[in-house]
Specification:
Bound molecules: 6-O-phosphono-alpha-D-glucopyranose
Helix content: 25-40%
Keywords: Aminotransferase, Cytoplasm, Glutamine amidotransferase, Repeat, Transferase
CATH superfamily of the largest domain: Glucose-6-phosphate isomerase like protein, domain 1
Number of strands: 25
Strand content: 15-25%
Strand order of the largest sheet: 3-2-4-1-10-9-11-15
GO biological process, one term: fructose 6-phosphate metabolic process
Number of domains: 2
CATH architecture of the largest domain: 3-Layer(aba) Sandwich
CATH topology of the largest domain: Rossmann fold
GO molecular function: carbohydrate derivative binding; glutamine-fructose-6-phosphate transaminase (isomerizing) activity
Main location: cytoplasm
Distance between the termini: 11 Å
Number of helices: 18
Catalytic activity: D-fructose 6-phosphate + L-glutamine = D-glucosamine 6-phosphate + L-glutamate
Structural class: alpha/beta
Length: 616
């Protein structure tokens, strides 16, 4: 999605802004731009559709230089991804502004501003904001006052950064529903929508809260809260290794992140396991007492995180006997829901900034004090400083580290590990786990990183399977039980990065429709651990073969499924059935990756998709 970078320094900041934008490229975007106040006090800008490299090219042809400026990568919502819609937007020669989010009341504001004599040069909702601030500036004479007054009239979500040639020593920023972080340097300060953009210039950050307005100068940062009162926001030192945003020896971030899974699963388990049990305190000091009161769980998430929630339902109901509902956030947030008594609201998100998931949490919290309130909220999230974490009562951080590839991989497996920890913690408090189950699974979890390593070692075999796939246009993924959401995740990965149409079905549904599609051009991919459903699955596979369908089966070594004509079997290491969804995800990730590489798609930044969906 859109990205913001801004800087106030004593040196030329053009290169810093471009580097910042490059670090945000992983979020997905379709145009880029930057604006600076030059040595003559004039606002200058370059904007280009397409990649940041196009913007760099523009700068090479016509260099810009300045000490105060803002930059943006835009993911089009209102108006096509072309130069005139790209940010920064100007109001005359006076103001430049970049915006993340959506202004819902842009139409009436545009009418009003047109009536006041403003001319619009783009189709964006953003342009109304820069003219509105300009209009206020004429009345109030001060940029900070004008910004505060203008945002009071905005409906929707925004992270904004603005500069004025009349006050060329500062940049202004404000947020509501879209994240912004101030980066603190020595004699220079920065702003960005994601700290990742500023890691090359600082490791000290101040996270703006909802409604905050910040005035950023070279040597000071002033913040006012939503009520207009001056506030001090905590300064946080960032510790993640600088290598995180680097592909290292790998061709793509996605491949690097797939291979990081043993390490990050290990990290997600660290400090959370006792000798034979899960430490409930991992969820926060009040978790044990609160878990004892939980009688239901409602999970809400989007995309890959939603699939993690679907696996968790099998675990929560099957292992801990706790009723669980799972829903995509974009549906949940607009639906009248009946909340069973004592329901824990669980949101799952890699970024912690997904607009629909955040809105669902806020709706859930708005019920507090009513007869249909949730007991409490828990965020399972990969970003400790995110809005979702800050606004939830309890948090369990997945320790996946920054995930750059748009298609989620290590975030998913660490979410699954976290959800299994939640299942065990809840089940123990309620005494509903089978005898010895927790100790057995704790043991298995400790062995999981090395099992994941074994699955990764199958990379070359899977690359061969991918060759068979590369010219196909459609595919079906089948699974039963916890492997059904794994099949859904496998199909999502394939369509996201290879653009091959992929659908997932519970294997038992095959003959209720999808079997009609099966022929030699429709490969069927199946995940088959050796569990009590494997015999049923084998019958489903026969149904496919009988119709000439080509099968690719990831099967437990002991499942007794043989290679044969039209059937390619990839033997998987044996694993406890409860943990099988985590292990069987890995070959499906590798398969999608290799198919995408063979098809020559943009693996890390697939077309039309964004890493962090901060608008509805
Ligand atoms: C986007 C990403 C997906 C991700 C989904 C939810 O669609 O491309 O990879 O699963 O958002 O994101 P979240 O950060 O909430 O997990």
């Amino acid at each position: 999605m859109c990205g913001i970078v801004g800087a106030v320094a004593e040196r030329n900041i053009a290169a810093i802004l471009v580097e910042g934008l490059k670090r945000l490229e992983y979020r997905g975007y379709d145009s880029a731009g930057l604006a600076l106040i030059d040595a003559h006090g004039a606002l200058r800008r370059h904007r280009r559709p397409g990649k940041v490299s196009g913007l760099e090219q523009a700068l090479a042809e016509e260099p810009l230089s300045g000490r105060v400026g803002i930059a943006h990568t835009r993911w089009a919502t209102h108006g096509a991804p072309c130069e005139r819609n790209a940010h920064p937007h100007f109001s005359g020669d006076d103001l430049a502004l970049v915006h993340n989010g959506i202004i819902e009341n842009h139409a009436p504001l545009r009418e009003r501003l047109r009536g006041l004599g403003y001319t619009f040069t783009s189709d964006t909702d953003t342009e109304v904001v820069v003219h509105l601030i300009h209009h206020k500036l004429k009345e109030l004479g001060d940029l900070t006052a004008a910004l505060k007054s203008a945002v009071a009239e905005l409906h929707g979500a925004y992270g904004l950064a603005v500069v004025s040639r009349h006050q060329p020593d500062r940049l202004l920023a404000t947020r509501s529903g879209s994240p912004l972080v101030v980066g603190l340097g020595i004699g220079e300060n920065f702003i960005a929508s994601d700290q990742m953009a500023l890691r090359q210039v600082t490791d000290r950050f101040m996270y703006l809260e909802e409604g905050d307005v910040a005035e950023i100068q070279r040597d000071r940062v002033q913040v006012w809260d939503a009520a207009g009162a001056p506030v001090t926001r905590e300064v946080v030192q960032y510790h993640e290794g600088a290598e995180a945003a680097d592909k290292g020896e790998y061709r793509h971030f996605m491949l690097k992140e797939i291979h990081e899974q043993p390490k990050v699963v290990q990290r997600t388990l660290e400090g959370r396991l006792g000798s034979d049990h899960v430490l409930a305190q991992a969820f926060g000091p009040q978790a044990a007492e609160l878990f004892a009161r939980v009688r239901n769980v409602q999970i809400v998430a989007c995309g890959t995180s939603y699939h993690a929630g679907l696996v968790a339902r099998y675990w929560l109901e099957g292992l801990a006997g706790i009723p669980c509902q799972v829903e995509v956030a974009s549906e949940f947030r607009y639906r009248q829901v009946v909340v069973p008594a004592d329901t824990l609201f669980v949101s799952i998100s890699q970024s912690g900034e997904t607009a629909d998931t955040l809105a669902a949490l806020r709706n859930a919290k708005a019920r507090q004090g009513s007869g249909h309130a949730y007991l409490s909220s828990l965020a399972i999230c990969n970003v400790g400083t995110s809005s979702l974490v800050r606004e939830s009562d309890l948090t369990l951080l997945t320790q996946a580290g920054p995930e750059i590839g748009v298609a989620s991989t290590k975030a998913f497996t660490t979410q699954l590990v976290s959800l299994l920890l939640l299942t065990l913690a809840l089940g123990r408090v309620h005494g509903t786990l089978a005898d010895g189950l927790e100790a057995r699974l704790v043991d298995e979890l400790r062995r999981l990183p090395s099992r994941l390593g074994e699955a990764l070692a199958m990379d070359k075999t899977i690359e061969k399977v991918a060759e068979f796939f590369a010219d196909k246009h459609h595919s079906l993924f089948l699974g039963r039980g916890t492997q059904y959401p794994v099949a859904m995740e496998g199909a999502l990965k394939l369509k996201e990065i290879s653009y091959i149409h992929a659908e997932a079905y519970p294997a038992g549904e095959l003959k209720h429709g999808p079997l009609a599609l099966v022929d030699a051009d429709m490969p069927v991919i199946t995940v088959a651990p050796n569990n009590e459903l494997v015999e049923k699955l084998k019958s489903n596979l026969q149904e496919v073969r009988a119709r000439g369908g080509e099968l690719i089966v990831f099967a437990d070594r002991e499942a007794d499924i043989e290679n044969g004509e039209g059937t390619q079997v990839v033997a998987m290491p044996h694993i406890d059935d409860v943990l099988a969804p985590i292990l069987y995800t890995v070959p499906l990730q590798l398969l999608s990756y290799h198919v995408a590489v063979l098809r020559g798609t943009d693996v890390d930044q697939p077309r039309n998709l964004a890493k962090s969906v901060t608008v509805e």
